[in-house]
UniProtKB/TrEMBL annotation, chain A:
Protein name: Heme exporter protein B
KW Metal-binding (keyword) present: no
Main location per the UniProt record: membrane
Membrane topology: Multi-pass membrane protein
Function: Required for the export of heme to the periplasm for the biogenesis of c-type cytochromes.
Record-level Gene Ontology MF annotations: heme transmembrane transporter activity
Stretches that traverse the bilayer: 21-41, 47-66, 101-121, 127-149, 161-182, 194-217
Organism expressing this protein natively: Salinimonas sediminis
Gene: ccmB
TrEMBL record, chain B:
Entry GO terms, CC: plasma membrane
Transmembrane portions of the chain: 15-39
Designated gene of the protein: ccmD
The name this protein goes by in its record: Heme exporter protein D
Subcellular location: Cell inner membrane
One GO process term, biological-process aspect: cytochrome c biosynthetic process
Pfam families (UniProt xref): CcmD (PF04995)
Major location category of this protein: membrane
Family: Belongs to the CcmD/CycX/HelD family.
Known function: Required for the export of heme to the periplasm for the biogenesis of c-type cytochromes.
TrEMBL record, chain C:
Name this polypeptide is given: Heme exporter protein C
Lineage: Bacteria, Pseudomonadati, Pseudomonadota, Gammaproteobacteria, Alteromonadales
Protein keywords: Cell inner membrane, Cell membrane, Cytochrome c-type biogenesis, Membrane, Transmembrane, Transmembrane helix, Transport
Organism: Salinimonas sediminis
GO biological processes: cytochrome complex assembly
GO MF, one annotated term: heme binding
């Protein structure tokens, strides 16, 4: 049972680390956005402090949209996804393993670089901590939602912007709570309520999103 | 009746532009929905009829061809 | 319990049901919308704070309320389709989606036209406005996903999953007012014990809500009929129907 999870997980990680250039792309994109913003809006420390959390979150979301294709597309194109689905193993675990691997590859680097971004955008220590925690809880939600969107559109030859459009409505509440958490931190208030809401959204998604993804993949395989 | 004159009714207490703009756009969109539904059906019926005639013509041509083959 | 419903999984039964319901609902919708709008625009007293600008309520509130109900109706159709594998349910879903999108657009537009004189800006990033905008994106997502597939059977299932995922968003819309509590005024008529609006103003509003609901239902039925005809055009009963319609038109 867990062997399946680890098997798929290890395979996906190995595949991801074989294409190191592609691995670094979303991260570079994130750095570019973070560098461009102060130049566009002006280097005033106050304004950077105010818009910083939002900029980092939006950049993280956009970067994740870049790396979303890796979830299922290649496995779908070379047929290995179909093989896995026909293997008779529980698909929930399979999908969960793929999502976990995707999250590790896509977002752990982002999380590790968040302190750097916080310094670049003049965040105070409490703000940086709140930002880090909101990203820690929120990015798995991004991966889970990306899995549904990619599962639905993997069979569409010219998907293009479709997965992003599908993800957008679900992302907006996340963004609202995440940025309001950092805002509360900036004002010296408690930000646990916002984090609790993000955590709740994450747990609901963790329970339901893999099921939806499995169904979506089954529909796409026809 | 809440208004004394027609001009007053149109002016809507100075908010005429906003009131009439919202009602105008809303009812236009609703009218558009009605027309689109009706027009879609018309096009569909036409297509289905054309397809039926085409099938009929193919059938006729086939039987004629078969008859010609018989006579040859 | 719902066994009687299952006959409408057949496209022909659903088609004739639509045919029977359309005249009634069209009549209700026309009657109510005309009565409610005329009453609201001409006879309802002006608001003591907002003057005559408040009359936008008679189109804005029905559209805003029903844009969410329509989404729920669409999601129920999607759920029925996914659980019972009905083709007609998916057809109903995709028939409802553009109507819902149009109603959401009306709600947004009238909201903007109401916001300009009241708040001084066409668009304010207030919770309810934002949620309504998300709702529009949700409708667009379902429609775009459905259109992306060539195989409409597959398209129905995929769009159905998307519609159900979006349902999570509808409670967020509903409770967003309490959560973020910003510029937008609170709900005026759902406070059942003591409505915050005069009865003279309330009646036209209720009538228009009924009229708008009947309108959405009618148009959805019309679009469902079209969808059934499109998907079943090779069936004998459709062919017969189309040809008998033609004969009727020629008379």
């Amino acid at each position: 049972m867990t062997t399946l999870f680890y098997g798929v997980f290890k395979r996906d990680l190995a595949l991801a680390f074989r294409q190191k250039a592609e691995l670094a792309q979303p991260l570079l994109f994130l750095l570019i956005v973070i560098t461009l913003f102060p130049i566009a809006v002006g280097p005033g420390p106050d304004i950077l402090q105010r818009i910083g959390p939002g900029v980092i979150w939006v950049a993280a979301i956009l970067a994740s949209l870049l790396g979303m294709d890796r979830l299922f597309k290649e496995d779908f194109n070379d047929g290995s996804l179909e093989q896995m689905m026909l293997s008779g193993h529980p698909l929930y675990q399979l999908v969960l393993a793929k999502i976990t691997a995707h999250w590790l590859v896509c977002f752990i680097p982002v999380l590790l670089l968040t302190p750097l971004f916080s310094i670049l955008l003049n965040q105070t220590l409490t703000m940086a901590v709140a930002l880090f925690l909101s990203l820690l809880l929120g990015t798995p939600l991004l991966s889970l939602m990306a899995a549904i969107a990619m599962g639905l559109t993997v069979g569409v030859p010219k998907g293009g912007l479709l997965p992003s459009l599908l993800m957008l409505p679900v992302l907006i509440p996340l963004l609202i709570f995440a940025t309001s958490a950092v805002e509360s931190a900036a004002m010296g208030l408690s930000y646990t309520p916002q984090l609790a809401v993000i955590g709740a959204m994450f747990l609901v998604a963790l329970a339901l999103a893999p099921l939806a993804t499995v169904y979506a993949l089954k529909v796409s395989q026809h | 009746m809440n208004f004394d004159s027609f001009a007053e009714f149109i002016a809507m207490g100075g908010y005429g532009l906003y009131v009439w703009l919202s009602f105008g756009v809303s009812f236009s969109v609703m009218l558009l929905l009605v027309i689109a539904g009706w027009y879609e059906r018309k096009i569909l019926d036409k297509e289905i009829r054309q397809e039926a005639y085409r099938q009929q013509r193919i059938q006729v041509a086939r039987t004629q061809a078969a008859q010609r083959k018989d006579t040859v | 319990m719902f066994m009687w419903l299952h006959q409408y999984a057949k496209t022909e039964a659903a088609y004739s049901l639509c045919n029977r319901l359309i005249p009634w609902f069209a009549a209700i919708s026309m009657g109510c919308l005309v009565t409610g709008t005329v009453w609201g625009l001409l006879f309802a007293p002006s608001d003591y704070q907002q003057g005559d600008a408040f009359r936008i309520i008679y189109i804005h509130v029905p559209a805003a309320m029903l844009s969410m109900s329509t989404y729920i109706a669409m999601a129920v159709a999607a759920l029925v389709g996914l659980v019972w594998q009905w083709r007609t349910a998916f057809m109903a879903m995709i028939a409802i989606a553009p109507v819902g999108a149009a109603v959401t657009f009306i709600a947004l537009f009238t909201g903007a036209a109401w916001g300009k004189p009241m708040w001084g800006a066409w668009w304010v990033w207030d919770a309810r406005l934002t949620s309504e905008l998300i709702l529009l994106f949700l409708y667009c997502g379902v429609i775009a996903l459905y259109c992306a597939f060539d195989d409409k059977q597959q398209a129905g299932k995929a769009a159905g999953v998307m519609a159900l995922v979006g349902v999570v968003n509808v409670p967020v819309i509903h409770f967003s007012v309490q959560w973020w509590n910003t510029l937008h005024q609170g709900a005026t008529i759902t406070r059942l014990d003591k409505p915050a609006i005069a009865t003279q103003m309330l009646w036209p509003l209720l009538i228009n809500i009924v009229g708008m609901a009947a309108f959405i239902f009618t148009i959805s039925c019309v679009r469902l009929k079209n969808e059934i005809i499109r998907r079943e055009q090779r069936r004998p009963w459709v062919q017969q129907l189309v040809h008998s319609n033609e004969a009727k038109n020629e008379l």
